[in-house]
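In the design runs reported in the main text, the only information available to the sequence generator was the tokenized backbone. The following block is the verbatim input for one such run; it is reproduced so that readers can re-run the procedure and compare outputs position by position.
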């Protein structure tokens, strides 16, 4: 059940009409209907309004959907191997045991890759305030057991707000930044101290028969962040609100080398002994940059970044992220862009532009969100990278196994002529591969016929999980450009099943006699492949 269906079930149970709900949350009834049908994403502000109108919380609506019940969802383009906690494998549940083994095997490359890497994980104070940190600590313990070097950055906004209300104080914000006067600064210090102690206590758990059993997480915290005042912005003195000047990377690395988890609060200190209230994003990004972290992970209210059509974007480059932010600025129709995204997506762009390989934006409401994001092929949120994860290149001998894995199913179905490993190894210099995140997802070959100044385009194969995204086209046109650079004037191909694909790309059907003489000698008249050619 999706979050939209969860909203619909709750609304129906309260006998509230769609029009009544739309009026209460000041939204269009048509858009609400699309949200309930799962055709449109919902941002966090709208979700909060809907939850309030339905007399519940966003967490309750998430809990009624499938999302928080998901265990380890390994997907082949969104097809789960293991779906819900009720399906955890048992001795009497053989199919699910197989699913678990399949998931565990698929996670193995990530397990090998993450050992010794540095991850910075940032989350708002809501994670602690709403008792979600216990589940998060289980995932942190798992990562620590895999020798991942962890740096946590926590927020404190809800805790600060509670203390300000308790003391009957009010503060104002300028462009999302709190104006921190002397009284507010006392609330900031108190809130940071309390939440830090609570996090350290939860990370110290070692209950038997729990995911924290046998854990040995030592937590280090201190004055690792040097800050400076932001000063006057838009004519307003922000007082004790500051920004990061420097992160003590050497000090943090020493703690990480000692197998300690480092906990950073959104507080910074100046050489003159002053303390400054910092933003969670600033501390997290600055720490990730200073530590040359492999990953920066933000846990937020929404499930990731949606485009203007409401579709969740699994991956995006920093350039695409900036374009999206530019398009939604001042766009009142962009209802799919949540407040979280306005904070965290610019932070992700900044991190990528300063050398952080990958930044992940995932929902804090999904149980095991970090595990699902890091150990599955597609993840569950949005990953922002400096460069595209997909690339194309000439194949080498190390790619033979990946090529065989792609073409063998197509050979079995009769789409491709059978080639053995030895055959591929001998002709590997004629192959080109498409990679996604260092994983081969496509291949094709160019066999040269120098006398006729033509080349055969052959053995095109795309991983089933990546079909439908135009990758076949990209690989074909890449090979065509390589052929042109090599001085070939045309391409030809032989096919029994995919003639229309080639016709749509400018090929024309030819007689067998038009083939190069050497290729005519090898033509299989029993297979009766059709011949197509294209001038470059």
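Verbatim output:
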């Amino acid at each position: 059940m999706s979050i939209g269906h969860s909203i619909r079930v709750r609304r129906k149970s309260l006998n509230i009409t769609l029009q009544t709900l739309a009026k209460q949350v000041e939204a269009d009834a048509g858009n609400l209907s699309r949200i309930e049908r799962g055709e449109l994403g919902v941002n966090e502000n709208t979700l909060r309004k809907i939850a309030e109108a339905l007399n519940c919380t966003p967490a309750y609506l998430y809990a009624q959907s499938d999302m928080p019940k998901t265990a380890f969802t390994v997907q082949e383009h969104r097809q789960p191997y293991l779906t819900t906690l009720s399906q955890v494998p048992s001795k009497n549940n053989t199919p699910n045991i197989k699913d678990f083994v399949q998931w565990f095997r698929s996670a193995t490359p990530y397990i090998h890759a993450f050992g010794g890497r540095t991850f910075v994980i940032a989350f708002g104070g809501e994670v602690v305030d709403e008792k979600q940190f216990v589940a998060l600590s289980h995932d942190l313990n798992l990562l620590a057991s895999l020798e991942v070097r962890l740096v946590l950055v926590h927020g404190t906004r809800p805790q600060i707000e509670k203390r300000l209300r308790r003391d009957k104080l009010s503060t104002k914000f300028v462009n999302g930044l709190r104006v921190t006067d002397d009284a507010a600064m006392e609330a900031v210090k108190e809130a940071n101290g309390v939440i830090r102690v609570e996090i350290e206590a939860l990370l110290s758990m070692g209950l038997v028969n729990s995911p924290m059993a046998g854990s040995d997480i030592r937590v280090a915290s201190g004055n690792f962040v040097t800050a400076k005042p932001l000063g006057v912005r838009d004519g307003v003195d922000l007082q004790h609100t500051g920004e990061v000047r420097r992160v003590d990377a050497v000090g943090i690395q020493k703690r990480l080398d000692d197998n300690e988890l480092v906990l950073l609060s959104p507080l910074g200190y100046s050489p003159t002994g002053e303390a400054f209230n910092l933003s969670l994003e600033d501390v997290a990004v600055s720490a990730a940059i200073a530590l040359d972290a492999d990953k920066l992970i933000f846990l937020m209210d929404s499930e990731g970044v949606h485009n203007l059509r409401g579709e969740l974007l699994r991956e995006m480059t920093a350039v695409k992220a900036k374009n999206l932010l530019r398009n939604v600025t001042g766009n009142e129709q962009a209802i799919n862009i949540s407040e979280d995204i306005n904070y965290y997506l610019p932070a992700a762009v900044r991190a990528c532009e300063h050398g952080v390989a990958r930044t992940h934006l995932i929902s804090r409401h999904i149980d095991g969100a970090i595990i699902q994001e890091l150990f599955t092929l597609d993840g569950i949120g949005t990953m922002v990278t400096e460069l595209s994860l997909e690339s194309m290149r000439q194949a080498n001998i190390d790619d033979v196994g990946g090529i065989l894995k792609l073409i063998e199913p197509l050979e079995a179905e009769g789409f491709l002529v059978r080639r053995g490993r030895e055959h591929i190894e001998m002709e590997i210099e004629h192959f080109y591969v498409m990679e996604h995140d260092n994983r081969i997802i496509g291949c094709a070959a160019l066999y040269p016929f120098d006398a006729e100044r033509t080349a055969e385009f052959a053995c095109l194969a795309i991983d089933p999980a990546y079909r439908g995204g135009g990758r076949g086209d990209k690989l074909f046109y890449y090979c065509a450009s390589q052929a042109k650079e090599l001085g070939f004037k045309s391409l030809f191909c032989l096919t029994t099943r995919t003639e229309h694909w080639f016709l749509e790309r400018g090929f024309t059907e030819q007689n067998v006699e038009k083939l190069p003489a050497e290729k005519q000698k090898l033509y299989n008249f029993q297979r009766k492949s059709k011949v197509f050619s294209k001038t470059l």
